[in-house]
Design a protein that fits this description.
- This protein is mainly alpha-helical and about 150 residues long.
- The protein has helices at about 1-5, 15-40, 50-60, 70-75, 80-105; strands spanning about 125-130, 135-140.
- The protein has a two-stranded antiparallel ribbon.
- Helix 2 (about 15-40) packs across helix 3 and helix 3 crosses helix 5 (about 80-105).
Length: about 150
């Protein structure tokens, strides 16, 4: 945004700390919303973290980027502004997904504090399949199967 203001032809453009902080707060809020919408689906996208980042970057161009398209065209030079905003959105998406991927690989998986029902002999399982074969193994006593005993 500050580069856009520098390319504007109007004299007297001033930069303030409040204006810079306003841009940062708006960017953080819009990126947080877009990332929250993306995160439940991001794990289902096949490919590397960079490919996922390009998808998120495209989302960031599409959702919050359209809000600033009018300013990118009206203020300054559009041939500089539009690729610059798109590049920032793509890089932002890549940084977010690479960071999420790194954290996902480094942090331990959440524990399941539910008691395991396979330890309970009174579990209501009827049959379990052996993963290596096509056999079905019954866990019921022979007397409970109709026609036997």
């Amino acid at each position: 945004m500050r580069v856009v203001a520098l390319t504007d032809q109007e004299p007297g453009t001033k930069f303030t700390i409040g204006g810079t902080l306003g841009i940062l707060v708006a960017a953080v809020i819009l990126d947080t919303i877009a990332t929250a919408l993306y995160s439940p689906f991001g794990i289902n996208i096949p490919g590397s973290d960079v490919k996922k980042g390009l998808v998120l970057g495209a989302i960031l161009i599409g959702i919050p980027g359209l809000l600033f398209l009018g300013e990118a065209i009206d203020v300054g030079r559009p041939l500089l502004n539009i690729p610059m905003f798109a590049g920032v959105a793509l890089l932002n998406g890549i940084v977010i997904t690479v960071t999420f991927g790194w954290l996902h690989r480094r942090l331990p998986a959440p524990r399941n504090d539910q008691p395991d029902s396979s330890d309970d002999p009174s579990s209501s399982a009827i049959a379990t399949a052996n993963p290596g074969s096509n056999e079905v193994v019954s866990v019921l006593p022979d007397s409970s199967i109709e026609g036997t005993g």
